[in-house]
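so i finally got all the pieces together for this one. its two components total, 887 residues if u count the protein bits. some of the lines might not be protein, just check the labels. i wanna see the whole assembly predicted at once instead of chain by chain like last time, that was a mess tbh
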Amino acid sequence: MEMVKLIIDGREVEVPVGTTIMEAADQAGINIPRLCYDPDLSALGACRLCVVEVEGNRLLPASCVTPVYQGMVVKTESDDVVEARRTILELLVANHPLDCMTCDKMGDCKLAEYCYRYGVKGSSFTGEKHNYPVDNSNPFIIRDLNKCILCGACVRACNEMTGQDNLSFLYRGFNRKATTAADVPYIESDCVFCGQCVAVCPTGALTEKSMAGAARRWEVERVRTTCPFCGTGCNFDLAVKNGKVLGVLSNPDSPVNQRSLCVKGRFGWDFIYNEKRLKTPLIKKDGEFVSATWDEALDLIAARFKEVKDKYGVDAFASLSSARCTNEENYLVQKFTRAVMGTNSTDHCART
Amino acid sequence: MAGLASTFGSGAMTNSINEITTDAELMFLIGTNTTEAHPVIGYKMRQAARNGCKLIVCDPRHIDLVDEADYWLRQKPGTDIPLLNGLMHIIIKEGLEDKKFIEERTENYEELKTIVETYTPEHVSELTGLSVEDLYAVARLYATTDKAMLFYTLGITEHICGTRNVMSCANLAMLTGHMGRPGTGVNPIRGQNNVQGACDMGALPNVYPAYQNVTVPANKEKFEKAWGVSLPDKMGLKIPEMFEKANEGEIKAMYILGENPVLTDPNSNHIRSGLENLEFLVVHELFLTETAEYADVILPAASFAETDGTFTSTERRVQRVRKAIEPLPGQANWQTICAMSNAMGYPMNYKSPEEIWDEMASLSPSMAGITYPRLEAKGMQWPCPTADHPGTGFMHKGKFTRGLGLFQPSDHIPPGEMPDEEYPFLLSTGRILYHYNVTTPYSMGIQSVWDREWAEVNPEDAAKMRLETGSQVKVTSRRGEVVTSVKVTDRVMPGIVWMSFHYKETPTNALTSHHLDPITGTGEYKVCAVKLEKV
């Protein structure tokens, strides 16, 4: 592989030909701010926040789309660069609701993070502001386009990750919008509610409805686990606060799915809190189920299973294990059937 | 699974999911609606197709991936064997088979040659409804592409000839040498989150964990020693046999964990009568399901968010499940099963799921090298026999698990029940994107949007019967009847009705066939005869 050497902020860095300035800086541990860049999506170079100064170049190129060359000298935080970034942030903030104190994305908002980094408290630009109605049309995703910074990550995620092609940019200039075909609410569009758009959104424009008003992002404990629906083996994080699951968040380290999920994995988890969940053992008495203690239930089971085994022999018992339960539970069910009940008649719905 | 096991020596998916985007040059899909049943794998297929990977879709229904496909073979339902035999016929006639692979790695090729000999393109065209030109084009493309992955799911297995269908898929891959390398293989995408694991753990009547046959004395001795008991000699019963025996009064008691056969198994009235006939039934469940209604004792189960453990995905990847919240019923399922065993006088005193895993792994050669600490980063794919083995991304490199790959050719086997004058429509069933079998209807969000069955009916049939989208129809088969809303769409061919089985208000499996694959006992969910009446 052909390598090139360049200088970033006075440090020599060696990277393969074709590497972008941003990637080279990442490799050197130098963080360049970015809003529209996403490692899993095609590079757009739209937000311009990642601009850097390159010696001999009178413009400030966007580092996410500019390849390095031999002997390149880059400054990532020069006065000109910082001024440009402040201006960009002020332009974005000029048309962004500053209700951060109640925004669900606070703590995980890139716009807020960079405003903090560059001391942008408000905007010297005044003018018209968007006043879009919030799209609350579905049970899963809240879409507040007033908070959209037009980075296009949702558009690219919809096209490149899911391949659903449901989102694109519509209109021009101030009216430009990342939205569905015909600009209808999600529920009326071809949306399949995979939620990849939510996973990549850098601001509060797209958020999980289940987490609205329930927790600040830093209060949430993330517990990585494996999806309980189909056999693909997607991983995700359960967002937990005070012993309660609030939602599902993508985990980029997932070996199979990275940040992608489907509607079931991302939004189907709430079956665990369905009010019909059984919480105590039930024993049928005169055709009605009656609540029982664990000991009552287990004693009855042991007595009846023993009775059947003694009276009819081992062939009178069978068990169904579960393709939905863990390996460890399945191991125990077949062990119980074989070692305790004395039969190999255990099966599960692999054949159905 | 049985079809692949007898062909290769292992019934699992041969290759890995990520090879779709990193290695494959062609994807051959037969009987898998991947974007709905396995959406994230479907996304990858779409990405690959848009990046130039060839895509062949064989499906009677106009599934989403048809729109990304280079070729769509819309065969008549139940004609997969003629389709596959027809492709192999052309490949052999044109000399496109991988002679070296056949010679070195397979056996019984002569029988395959003899059987597919009669499946001329013209004959196959007649049986399947496909054009001769498409058969030639697809056969040539598949055979001449270096790295081709074949995928199937229940569209192949849920037939009276399911095992024979699977063997025919395997025959096609072996004939062309599309095995044992990245971006190739025969890849059944498993349905449930842990159906692979439940099989691996020996929740099957014929094998202990890791597919160690119960009738082999050495295996029995090993487990007797480990568990300190004497174990039964003979194979157990498969699900359909269990319910047969329950109906006959020979099975008296059952324990059912986390399954709802009343809603998910074919010919459900037969399941109901079997459960009714039991003297004692224990159901261990999250909800009071249609099956739990028949129980004498219901044990409340903990969900995936309430337990530690592992699931094994379709690509043989063992991954951690982690407890996020305390179990709602007070204890995890592994603890309940231990308590049940202790109450029976056989002590099970595991301190954690990890301890259970370690016992299983110590008895299971193909998983012996997998430990909880090794699963932390990315999970691990079995076979993984030792602590320093990296796991296995693709199987059968250089040699099949059984040694030589066995060609097991088959002639056409028509479905057990076909439409006739009284029941003129062919009913096929499957999953939709928004639901997963019978759990997701308990998701308040999902159920609020996708709350009822929409039976797909072709516009031609709809016009004849004066049906429109939203009309209510009664669907009747020889075994039962259900009422459903209709969606008029050309996703299905004329003469075919397609339904899912997710809703208890429309229990589609009251209709499905009583015919089974004779080898695996899998129900023929994909084909049965029904009639429609507007209500």
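The longest strand of chain A covers residues 235-241.
The mean pLDDT of chain A is 95.
anyway lmk what u think
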